[in-house]
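Bench notes, afternoon.
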Amino acid sequence: METKLTRITDLAKRRPRVKLQTLIHAIDEEALKACHTKLRGDKATGIDEVTKQEYDENLQENIDGLLARMKRQAYKPQPVRRVYIPKADGKKMRPLGIPAYEDKLVQKALNNILTSIYECEFLDCSYGFRPGKSCHDAIKAVGKILETKKISYIVEADIKGFFDNVDHVWMMKFLQERIQDPNLLRLISRFLKAGTMEEGKLYETDKGAPQGGLISPTLSNVYLHYVLDLWFTVKVTKECRGEAYLIRYADDFICFFQYKDEAEAFYGKMIERLRKFNLEIAEEKTKILEFGRFAESNRVKRGSGKPGTFDFLGFTHYCSQSKNGKFRVKRATIKKKLKTKVKEYAEWIWHNMHIPIEKLIKMLNQKLIGHFQYYGITDNSGKISLFRYLIRRKLHSVLNRRSQKKSLTWEKFAKLEERFPLARPKIYVNIYG
C-alpha cells in the first residue's frame, strides 16, 4: 500500500501539470485491511450500527465483498447519520456526519490517495488537516508575520457554513484539474451525494461535505486551494504595492496587509470571489483591524487608543511587548471558549460524581491535560491556571453534594488532593521555540 501511495506522490511531484490516471487500483485488499487496523473502534456507528469489532469478525469475507462491488461499480456509500454537537458558544449546534463503518474504510483509503496527490499541490499558507501541520503551527506563522513583516492591517474572516455549502459541481471541476481516473471521480461523487439520515428521514445532498467524513477535510482543502489560496497568492499579492500574506486553517483564515486601502479593497474582492463559488462570509466574524508592529504607535499618534484584538483557532490575539520592550503578539484563551469548556467539564463531573474518587480524578486529569496541551502556549499561563481553578471549585462543589451533610470542607478537600492531585497547568507549546 505504502509503495503505491509513494508512486502516486512521486508522479504528482514530477508531473505537476499532468492529470493522473488509474488511481483506483490503490484501493485494494492490502490498503483496506491497513485502514481497518488504523481506524479506532470506539467511535459512534453509522446508520447500519456496525462496529469495528463486528466488521472484524468476518473481515476477509467483508473485504472481498466490498472489492467485488467496487469492481463492478455496484458499491454505493450509505447515507450519513447526522447528529448535532454544540458549537463553541454553547448556544448553536453544529451538524456532524457519521458514516457507516465500511464507508469509513473506503473513505480512509480514498483520503490516502488524495493526500498523496495534493500534499505537493497545497501552498504553505494552508495548515488545516494536513500531515505535519497543526493549529499551533498556524498560530506560530501568524505571530511571525505580525512580528517580522511590515503589516499594519489584517482581515479576519470566516466562511459561513462552509462544510454545508461546498458546491459539488465546482468540487468535481477542481478535482479534475489533477485527476483523470473516472472510477475515482465517480467514487468521490457518490460520497458527496450519499445523503444524510436524520431521525429516520433521508435527506438528499446536492451540496456540502458533511463534517465527520474522513475525506471532507481534504476535499475542503482542495476546494479552498483553488477558491482562495491560489487566487490570493497569484493575483491578490501581485496587485498589492505593499506586503500581503494569508494563513488559513480549514475555513478560518487571516489575511495581512501593509496598507489600509489594500485591506479594504481585498475585503470587497473577497466577497465577490466567494460568491462566485456559492460561498459567503459570516459577517459577524469578519472584520478589518489595525494590528501589527506599527499599529499601536500609529493609533497613539492619532489618539485612537490601543489596537483591537482578533480571534483565531481558540485564542484571542492582542498587541503587547516582550520583557525587553519589543513588539509581541500575545494570546489568551477566548473568553467564550473558556466559559463553554468550564460548563462542559462541570457537566461531565456532575454526571460522573458517583464514580470512585481515584478513578474520577484519573479520568478528569486526562481531560485537563488534553486542555493544557492545546491551550498551554506561550503567554497563556494565566488562562489555563484560571481554568484549573474553576474546575477545582466545580469538583469540590460536586463532591460535596455526594454527602447529604455537605461535610467536605476545603480543608478535607485539600487532604483529598494530596492523595489524588489534580493535573497542574503547564506550557506545552513554546511559540518561539
